[in-house]
Amino acid sequence: MELPEITSKLLAAKKAKRMTFADIGKALGKDECWVAALFYCQAKATEEETCKLAKLLELPCEELKVLADFPTKGLGPVVPTDPLIYRLYEFIQVYGMPIKAVVHEKFGDGIMSLIDFSVHVDKEQDPKGDRVNITMSGKFLPYKVW
Q: Scanning 22, 66, 89, 145, which has its CA 20 to 30 A from the CA of 7?
C-alpha cells in the first residue's frame, strides 16, 4: 500500500523523536488511535492542532496544514494484503453478521456510528502470549421510519 507523502514524513519524524502515538496524543490532548488515524490521513485536525504537532515533531507548520483538510476515508485495496489489517478484515467477514444480529436484538434496526465513535487498543498480558484488546464504541443510530 502506498502511503501519502505526509504520512511518511510524520512517521519518520515520530521515529526520529522516539515518540509513540500515546506520547503525541498526550501532548495534543487526544487518544493515541486518533493520532494514528491523523498520521494516516483518516482524521481531520484543526489548524491549531497541526501547528502544535508540527512544533512537537519539529516540522514546518505549513507542511502539516494538509491534515486540516477533509480526509478521504479508507485505505488500500478492497481486500487488504497487510497481515494484521487482513485479520481485522477477516474478523468482519467471520463475525460481522453475528455481531449485527446481536446489535439488532439489543438496540433494534439501526447502525453503529463511526462519526460519534472511539477505538482503543490495549496490550493484555497473558501467560500463553500477549493479547490485543480492541474496544470500539459507537453511538447507535436507529433507522428512521416514515
A: 89
pLDDT digits (tens, 9 = 90+) for 110-129: 999 999 999 999 999 999 99
Per the confidence metrics, is the pTM higher than 0.85? no
5-68 is classed CATH 1.10.260.40: yes
131 classed as catalytic: no
- The residue type of 38 is L
Domain ranges of the chain: 5-68, 83-142
pLDDT tens for residues 84-99?
A: 989 999 999 989 989 9
User: Which CATH code is given to the segment(s) 83-142?
Assistant: 3.30.1160.10
Q: Is 63 exposed, middle or buried (0-12, 13-18, 19+ CB in 10 A)?
A: middle
The active-site residue out of 90, 118, 131, 137 is 90
113 is catalytic: yes
- Cα 15 from Cα 11, distance rounded (Å): 6
Catalytic site residue from 47, 48, 113, 118? 113
How far apart CA 56 and CA 77 sit, in angstroms, is 33
Catalytic residue among 87, 118, 131, 137: 87
Computed over every residue of the chain, the mean pLDDT equals 93
